[in-house]
Amino acid sequence: MAYVINGLTFAMMLFVLSAGLNIILGFLGVLNFAHGALFILGAYVTYAVTQTLGDFWLGLLIAPLVVGLFGMLIEFVFLRPLYKRHHVYTILLTFGLILVIYDIIKIIWGSDVKTVVTPPLLSGSFTLFGEIIPVASVFIILVGVLTAGGLWFIFKKTTFGKILTAISLDREIANALGFNVARRGTLAFGLGALLAGLAGVLGSLKLSIAAGVDAEFLIYSFAIVVIGGVGSFRGTLLASLIVGEMSVLGGVFLPELSMSLIFVLLVVFLTLYPRGMFGREIEQMHVPVVPYLGNVATAFQRLSATQLSLLSSLLVVALLVVAPLALPKYWTYLLAEIMVFALFAISFNVLFGFTGMLSFGQASIFGAGAYTISLMLIHVTGNWWLAFAASLVISTGVAVIIGLMSIHRSEIYFGMLTMAFAMLFYSIIYKWNSLTGGADGLSGIPSPVLKFGFTEVEILTPLANYYFILVVVAICYFILRTIMNSPFGQVLLAIRENPTRTEFLGLPVKKYKFIAFVIAGVFTGVAGALFAPFAGTIDALASHWSKSGEPIFMSLIGGISTLIGPGVGTLFYYVLHSYIVSITEYWQLVMGSILITVVMLFPMGITGYAKKFILSFKSS
Amino acid sequence: MNELEVRDINSYYGKSHILFGVSLDVAQGQVVGLIGRNGAGKSTTLKSIIGLVPPRQGSITYQGRNICGLPSHRIAKLGVGFVPEDRRVFSDLTVLDNLEIMKQVNPRGEGQWSVERIFDLFPKLAQLKDNRGMDLSGGEQQMVTIARTLMINPSVLLLDEPTEGLAPLIVREIKRLIQEVRKTTTILLAEQNLRFVLDLIDYGYVIDQGKVVLQGTAAELDADEHAKQKYLGV
Amino acid sequence: MAKKDKKSTLMGGHIDRRGFFKKSGLISAGAVGATLFSPLGTPFIHAKAKEPIKVGFCEVLSGLFAGIGTAEQKGAMLAEKHINASGGIMGRPLKVIYEDTQCKAQDAARVAKRLILEEDIVALHGETCTSVTKVLSQVARKYGILHWDYEVDGTSAYKEMHKLDFRLGDDGPTQMRGVVRLAERKYPKFKKWAVLVPDYAWGHDCLKDFQDAVANSTLKGGEVKPFLHKFGEADFSGIIQQIADYQPDGLVTISWAGDMVTFLRQQKPYKLYDKMVGFHYGNSVGICKAMGDQMVPLWSGMDQGHPSLPPGKKFNELYQKAYGEWVSEDTAACYYDSLMILKKAIEKAGETKPMAMAKAMEGLEYSGYAGWLKIREMSHLPIKKAYHMGYMGPVPGAPYWLATEIVPIPYGEVMVTDGEARDKFGMPIPFKS
Asked: Could you tell me which of A597, B82, A579 has the C-alpha nearest to residue C29?
């Protein structure tokens, strides 16, 4: 019985948070990954108010308002300019915002764990049916219920709410009818942020306050919005109850599986019932992945097949071959790691830049490759070829499974589904301690020993590792290049531009997408298989869903319209990251700001701008 | 002065060039037809005027004022009422809500269209006022869509294929509506249904593959058998 | 590869690295121009006639555990400052380069390699997170660099240790034995134990260590019931209810500050600690500081650097002078001593070659702000004088709760041993390294 009440408390906290995310996703179509950061910000502001003014109740009033206003500011300055673009930009922007918000918190409040002093009114408890019920829990439930009531009132009874609903149903027409959709969007985001802040106030009563505590809440609220359905608060409420209870009861009775169960539910819903229980489809416009480039765009494609492009690819390889002779030892090591992740990013971009599929699940495939080869090399065989083959089989298998289930969804749903798989996969790796080492992972992964008949080549030194990786990555790159320049690649580009039209032309779009997904998966797996022996250690975080964000960002920086772009982006990112981490402790602020800047101002990426430059040269 | 002057607009959807130098005039008080087959560019023209598909070249003047490039909601507030094809009612809201929220766009309630007036004109809608948009039939939805736009009391009404996919009975209702509305509002009517249109319009433009290929009064257009065959498949 | 002349900048950046960037034209400095610098009070090292001795210090400086890592870093920085103020090591300045591992094994591997390959460090220190310590240990072994740490490890981590590897801190079995020894003295009648641990390797290890400790004590025959909670648990209510239902005599906890604070706050209405006695180890200062007056009286294992104990108290005064606030973790003093111990080892060895330093470290004794310790020759683990358990309560003049009662337990009763062999001090020798 007490479990039920406690589950209810947790559920109500989640409801307030998820309702905010629901509003943002429903009215603006934005997958706000910074929602958790807003939540913990609300907790910190509550802490600040209770510390300085000694009054929690003032905090209850002020924190949501502060976070709401902050949200409006974010929306107005950073998100609004990105709506007309592909949704990858808003998603990446919110990733960048998380980093920035975390460091703002660190600058203002430091890194120590904080708590809020529970106000006397909420400190007590009473017994009900022989169970202890804390007053604070009742308070949270009350606030949750009031929030639900308030939202119902706003959206069903007030004109403001009805207009927001109308806008969420049909943005374009609302605009054409005279509603300033943009301004109302800002208000909607503010409302969503306010709810996140309010959830933070509630959280401060029960939790310790530290940046990072919010990560789990973000995932839960995401699952709740999907399961309950976008646009339906009834759905959010019901889903919050389900997830809340599952979490509490699962924690008590089935701790091994509790987290994974929620992800399984998430995957089931996204695959079979994308509208959730009561919701509707998220309104999406099909926006071209590659920003409009006029008739320059078709010239790009022609350019990639020309000798100029092949020559430049060979030039890059040649540079990489001689690089170690000119570079200090550490950079040889780093460049090898960069090449591995360049392969990761390039294979990701086959999906995104070439086929228009934004997948957040690549980290799982990478992890599958990495773990398989590690386990093979540690427990089964010293034969690298065998281990590598096994790793390819497993990682391709994972890609096939994820691909089969995700291909049927498009645009933002595809992204969410791949992410759900990534979360599920991560939770399995994390929990399956005996196999994967859980959070600690596997260490002491032996370096590759290549057996060629009777001779053996041991890849031990940084230099040997470097050339080994260079050879494998170069081979993979040229294979991908051949594939992308073939008619198959042309079909993928057509699918990216206009899937419906491609379907009309008689091409089985889903089949092509699936094949592309598997191809990308193969090379992602190769990257994972290269990485683990090179690093000597692998842990669960390598397959965390947030790791999937890195190839996206690197592709963007380098340029998604070229095959090698993501590789350039990886190089740039690593060098930048290395440099920044060594000169400031607030590297999250700097990296986050750079991410935001690149997303907003340089969407074409380095190679994109380079090609544009070269083409303008050619035409003049 | 012409209520609406469209001059040489070129509009695109992404890379697709849809309108090639379209020009037309709509004088105050007229009902002007924009006639053409499916995909000819009728909707795009209307959407260009309301700013949903802003033209890359050309100009659009409304009541002497250049509206090309303005955000759609501003154009609407100035008095351009857009009624989309596809009957895009706000499906989760009731009929009454669909109409009532429009008061926000025209808060002073100037003009002669109000919820009461609309319900007078459409007793059927009055009956359905608490039904949700998604529960209505196609014809009922179309009526709501038109009524909704009327609520902002526009000076010029852009009607995009109001009769598409509707039964003859409903089509008659809509005709009746247009005849009522034209008494106080200028109308630009985009249609495929030639017979429907010729009855209503004062002047017409025939559009084919993004270009205006023919224009004239209703009588002139009706007399041109060759054009009717070529451009409208009649 | 010719060694380049390297000048140090404020935060360990390198001018020749910047030169490389300019050469490759990769970074547009403008993009990074407006970055936030963080002085952190690092003293600017003037390039003296002698080359500085470079040491790499890996810590978790961002993420959930940043509070701990930052406190430890501050302790180390104080030591660095003092060492240089008194003439450095063998007349050479000490340059400590701090790197953020984010508590992630792969990032740790990368920064460790950078420190070794690029910065030419002579020794590597780190870290709070066990998985990272393992990796640092491996990287150090691979490149033949001295690695030492004040880290608290699970016994599974000892397998990774090698001849250039040293640990100065107490470990899981020591702490759990400390709890049991305390109970033998003060609560000999306790029969039922609830052990609340996070559900991952470290938690499982400590659970097992406690079970073993009970089985090998006068309390054997007592019941030990485990309660596993999810790391980062938001809702402890289910577990709290279960513990309350179980009605143990003692409740043992080891979770980090974030989870402990959540747990302590949520158990308040259930008044667990009125009905049972609490025994905790880990982040005790952080917990007391966060909880403030809402803290709950319980026993906590303390490093000697804890401000409740005399050496730690002295360190706290130093710390306050330097940073204007009380220490935020008891391990800050430990990390101060860590650097001092390295200094002593280098001076004893007379040089900075890894094997020489390692030999010097074996058997080294040091008395500092974290108390007295001696490094054992064979296992490279520490011997201390005593293990301290303190009962936390409010102390006038202190911004957070301190130990109002202290029970010192002779180290021989808690340290890790194989029980049979003894070294020349008569101290038991643990498993071979």
From this structure: A579
Residues of A in contact with B77 (CB under 8 A): 178
Q: Check if the beta carbon of residue A545 is closer than 8 Å to that of residue A460.
A: no
**Distance of alpha carbon A145 from the chain centroid:** 31
Q: Do C290 and A115 touch (CB under 8 A)?
A: yes
Task: Give the residue extent of every domain in chain B.
Answer: 2-232
Q: What is the DSSP string of B86-147?
A: S----TTSBHHHHHHGGGGTSTT--SS--HHHHHHH-HHHHHTTTSBGGGS-HHHHHHHHHH
**Domains of chain A: which residue ranges?**
2-210, 298-544
CATH class of the domain at B2-232: alpha beta
Chains touching A (at least 3 CB pairs under 8 A) are: B, C
Structure-block tokens of residue A288: 């071209």
d(CA B230, CA B221): 12
Alpha carbons A300 and A297: distance in angstroms, whole number: 5
Mutate to test the interface with B, among A83, A160, A173, A300 (most CBs of B within 10 A): A173
The structural domains of chain C, ordered by start, are 15-29+36-169+313-381 (3.40.50.2300), 173-302+385-413 (3.40.50.2300)
Identify the closest residue of chain C to A430 by CA–CA distance.
C200
Mutation pick from A8, A17, A109, A111 vs chain C, by most beta carbons of C within 10 Å, is A111
Q: Which of C60, C110, C401 to mutate to test the interface with A (most CBs of A within 10 A)?
A: C110
From chain B, pick out residues whose CB is under 8 angstroms from the CB of A295.
Answer: 15
Task: State pLDDT tens for residues C336-369.
Answer: 999 999 999 999 999 999 999 999 999 999 999 9
Global model pTM greater than 0.95: no
pLDDT, tens digit, for every residue of A363-413?
999 999 999 999 999 888 878 889 999 999 999 999 999 999 888 887 788
> Right CATH number for A298-544 from 1.10.3470, 3.30.60, 1.20.120, 2.60.40?
1.10.3470
Interface predicted TM-score (ipTM): 0.91
Query: Exposed, middle or buried: residue A127 (CB in 10 Å: 0-12, 13-18, 19+)?
Result: exposed
Q: List the helix and strand counts (H, then E) for chain A.
A: 26, 6
**Which other chains touch chain B, taking contact as 3+ CB pairs less than 8 Å apart?**
A
| Of A538, A518, A519, residue with least CA distance to A529 | A538
Kindly tell me whether chain C and chain A come into contact, counting contact as 3+ Cβ pairs under 8 Å: yes
CB contact under 8 A, B73 and A179: yes
